[in-house]
Amino acid sequence: MTDFALEFLNVSCAFRSRGAAAQRYTAVSDTTLRIRTGEFVSVVGPTGCGKSTLLNIGAGLLAPSGGEVRVFGVPLVGINTRAGYMFQTDALMPWNTALQNVMLGLQYRGLPDQQAQTVAMEWLQRVGLSEFAQSYPHQLSGGMRKRTALAQVLALDPDIILMDEPFSALDIQTRQLMENEVLALWAAKKKAVLFITHDLDEAIALSDRVVVFSAGPAAHPLGEYDIDLPRPRDVAEQRIHPRAIALHTQIWGVLREEVLKAYAQQLRQVA
């Protein structure tokens, strides 16, 4: 039995360029990344470096151009049914209540309505939204919608959780509350997590390991850093922890160069 929940083995992903079918843009190149069962791994990198592309490959939403993805040692074909995906933008159905949104995935899996409702209510309670079960997305704050989306993913009890900058649109106070909530829920079941973020402080506060991606095109991992901060953690406190500051300085020394490269590329494109 493998120790790894999710493996990217020499994975590459290329797309045809817009307006020039003969040209191809390589988003991710020769990337090998392994996430152990129960491990929380964050990927950081500049804008456009292929982080979300990698996550979509892990979810089975994109097929790699080269290499292989394995899920608990088995080559991935089609959708990764052992993973739950929390998107950057809201994926809630506006015509459904919070409860109905959380129930959807359970019903799709064939759970009877009454059982699906029971499980959904349990998860809404865990994320502090039991009193808002009958509210529609437009009646919820941004933080509440994120909590609903989190309950929607976790209610399915996935073995792997994929998260694509889920809290980037939230204010800093709500964001820290959500980050602590994720840590508490993760600690209870220790699922494998692959977390995409632009925020290095967030990555350090949450993770067991942080992977730095190069600037695109042909983005690839430049380095991996073990986060040896004690658990349980409080996100606000971790940001001022001396070891967290030292890790930030070390990782930022590598990440900064890639951010500058990506920025220079953007300037050339608009020039």
CATH class wording of the domain at 43-62 and 158-270: Alpha Beta
In the predicted model, the low-confidence regions spanning at least 5 consecutive residues are none
Record the strand order, biggest sheet: 6-7-8-3-9-10
Q: CATH fold name of the domain at 43-62 and 158-270, please?
A: Rossmann fold
**Whole-angstrom Rg:** 19 Å
Give the % helix: 25-40%
What does the model show?
The protein is of the alpha/beta class and 271 residues long. It has a domain at 43-62 and 158-270: Rossmann fold, CATH 3.40.50. Helix content is 39%, strand content 26%. The protein has a six-stranded mixed sheet with strand order 6-7-8-3-9-10, sandwiched between helices. Helix 2 crosses helix 3 (113-126) and helix 3 crosses helix 4. The model has no long low-confidence stretch (mean pLDDT 91).
Short description:
The chain is α/β, with parallel strands linked by helices and about 270 residues long.
Attribute tags:
271 residues, alpha/beta, Rossmann fold, six-stranded mixed sheet, four-stranded antiparallel sheet, globular
Reconstruct the topology from this structure:
Elements: E1 4-17, E2 20-36, E3 40-44, H1 51-59, E4 66-71, E5 74-75, E6 83-86, H2 98-108, H3 113-126, H4 142-154, E7 160-164, H5 172-189, E8 192-197, H6 200-206, E9 209-213, E10 221-226, H7 235-238, H8 242-270
Parallel strand pairs: 3-8, 3-9, 6-7, 7-8
Antiparallel strand pairs: 1-2, 1-4, 4-5, 9-10
Helix pairs in contact: 2-3, 2-4, 3-4, 4-5, 6-8
